[in-house]
Amino acid sequence: MSCGVKAMSRKVLDEKGRLFGVINIVDVIVIILAIVLICGIYVKFGRDERTGAASSGSMQTVTYQMEIKSVRSGIADNLREGDKIYDKENDVQLGTITDVQVTDARRSEALADGTIVEGTVQGRYDVTLTIEGSAQIIDGRHYIGRSDEISVNSDKQSYTKYCEFTGTVISIGQ
Prior knowledge:
Blueprint lengths: L1 H11 L5 E2 L3 E2 H21 L13 E13 L1 H5 L6 E4 L5 E18 L5 E23 L2 E4 L3 E3 L4 E5 L4 E10 L1
Antiparallel strand pairs: 1-2, 3-6, 3-10, 4-5, 4-9, 5-6, 6-7, 7-8, 9-10
């Protein structure tokens, strides 16, 4: 039985290690790896409705507002007009801050008698950022930097050169 296996292996691999006497097995492995790499690059960077050059939506300037709730003064003080803002998850630039509004943070609390009162939170601030950025609009959806979707009520983990925070998009205009 081992003779049959040897005879078969001689047909597949010759004495120089060539497959069927034509191509080296190492060359076959390199070719397969190259094909897998090319397929991977195509899947990762291939065209889709948002990033494809032939897509119908063109880049437009949009202005939107992001609200950051109950932050300490360090974050509120480090958000300034003109700063660029980025998405923490994928490092896409979300735009440039054009306005910063800082107010005392407010919170509702239920009292023992069941009534609800609202008061300020000491040492905490609510910040509303107005941000201007380039977006591609496809079927009513806004894609900042052609890839990062923003929508009202979506939370964004974001950062600037000076701080990072989580904000909620509260409005989108054009």
